[in-house]
Amino acid sequence: MILSKNIKIYYMYSTFAELLILGPILVLFLIAKGLSFTEIMILQSIAAISVILFEVPTGVTADKLGRKLTLIMGSALWAISLTIYILGSNFIVFALAEVIFSLGATFKSGADVALIYDTLKSNGQEKEFQAIEGHARSLALYAQAIGSVIAGFVYEVNIYLPMVISIGFMLVTIIITSGFKEPPSSLSKRISIKVYYEQVKNSGSYILKHEKLKALILYSMIFFVFYRTGFWYFQPYMENVDIPVKYFGIIFFVFNVTAALASKYSHYFMEKTKPKTLTIMSALLIISFILLGTITVWIGFVAILFQQLARGVYRPVMNKYLNKHIPSDKRSTVLSFQSLANNLTVALAFPFMGKLKDSLDIFNTHLILALLMIILTFISLRYMNSRLGLKKTQNIAELPK
Q1: Distance CA 134, CA 312 (A)
Q2: Distance of CA 301 to CAs 34, 136, 214, 257, 305, Å?
Q3: pTM of the entire structure?
Q4: Distance between CA atoms of residues 130 and 313, nearest Å
Q5: Residue 39, number of CB atoms within 10 A of its CB
Q6: How far is CA 251 from CA 36, 209, 238, 248, 306, in A?
Q7: Under a CB-based contact definition with an 8 Å cutoff, are residues 292 and 303 in contact?
Q8: Are 353 and 69 in contact (CB under 8 A)?
Q9: Closest by alpha carbon to 183, among 124, 136, 116, 241?
């Protein structure tokens, strides 16, 4: 009963949980608020640092107090953050909004995946996780696709409307989340400093001793920073190739539909690309960066679709590989460590990415991005092979086996 109910609710939750219809207009909104592109990237670094500070504590909270409660708290904090963005008028206030938003993100991070995975595990149906997660992710991306079109139109009416609508969606998410049932587990209803310390210590030690997890987290760090950087360059690129702003929403609709389809069929993607799944994911980003660096007319935006394919399969693929090696009592905390590592990379890299964009045109910026990703991906592959004793002809996509 819990299984079927939680899966149905998970699909509804996934549809609304990330439905912030801000993608096509976010950079425009922040510039309209008086920020420079460099300041925008600094805000993202602040957000990443905040995630680093909050990620593991909130992961422990999810493991010890329950995933349902932390998911509700996460959505509530997102609503508060968006409200501050509407009311704010300077960089300091926006930085506060980013900190609150990041705290909310860490409460949500991994808790939803842990809840549904443990629900399946309690029924001996872990093998269905990939298909369920892929479908849930596709619903989220379809919703974002529709939201992108809405954002473009309502932004022209009032620049605050996308924020207001997104706050409404967070309130809907809270109502939906309240219907989840915690799966059978060893959750402790009392949390103390000692319990917190032991949970962090044991989960951290588990990662350090688990070669496959370390290898996957390293790959995730490299992929994540380039995937996130690519997003912030979308709007500058489209402006540079003279695409009118009124078409941004429609273009982002196409982006999100592409990512949604890729997510929905991610299990087929894994089957067809074995044993090169992770390598191909990286190649999709690299190809996109190269094309965006060489095509200087409007049709070049099509190259961003390669990034959307990678975006769609990234979460289902990485979640399957990671969860396969994490015990239930440490699942949220270990996933929080992975998110912490990803955001540490973003915090260190984004100031450089902002400076890079300010120093060069958007085309050369993409070419340098491609070169950097090729080098770092190659290094990560060599590291994984040496740590795991794999032959050079073997691929890291075989790690979870």
Answers
A1: 9
A2: 27, 27, 35, 15, 8
A3: 0.76
A4: 11
A5: 16
A6: 24, 45, 10, 5, 14
A7: yes
A8: no
A9: 116
**Six-digit token string for 284:** 């999709």
* CA-closest candidate to residue 342, choices 242, 254, 226, 171: 226
Cα–Cα dist 70/173, whole Å: 13
One-letter-per-residue 3-state SS of the chain: CHHHHHHHHHHHHHHHHCCCCCCCCHHHHHHHCCCCHHHHHHHHHHHHHHHHHHHHHHHHHHHHHCHHHHHHHHHHHHHHHHHHHHHCCCHHHHHHHHHHHHHHHHHHCCHHHHHHHHHHHCCCCHHHHHHHHHHHHHHHHHHHHHHHHHHHHHHHHCCCHHHHHHHHHHHHHHHHHCCCCCCCCCCCCCCCHHHHHHHHHHHHHHHHHCHHHHHHHHHHHHHHHHHHHHHHHHHHHHHHCCCCHHHHHHHHHHHHHHHHHHHHCHHHHHHHHCCCHHHHHHHHHHHHHHHHHHCCCHHHHHHHHHHHHHHHHHHHHHHHHHHCCCCHHHHHHHHHHHHHHHHHHHHHHHHHHHHHHHHCCHHHHHHHHHHHHHHHHHHHHHHHHHHHCCCCCCCHHHCCC
101-157 confidence digits (pLDDT tens): 999 998 887 788 888 888 888 888 888 887 888 889 889 888 988 888 888 888 888
Q: Where are the domains of the chain?
A: 2-180+193-398
Q: With contact defined as beta carbons under 8 Å apart, do 218 and 384 qualify?
A: yes
Residue of 332, 290, 283 whose CA lies nearest to 117 = 332
357's tokens? 């964009």
Q: pLDDT value at position 398?
A: 44
What sign does the CA torsion over 165, 170, 171, 172 have? positive
In the block, residue with structure tokens 């704010």: 88
Quickly state the pLDDT bin for 185 (edges 50, 70, 90): low
**For the structural domain made of 2-180+193-398, what CATH number should be given?**
1.20.1250.20
4-27 residue pLDDT tens = 788 999 999 999 999 998 888 888
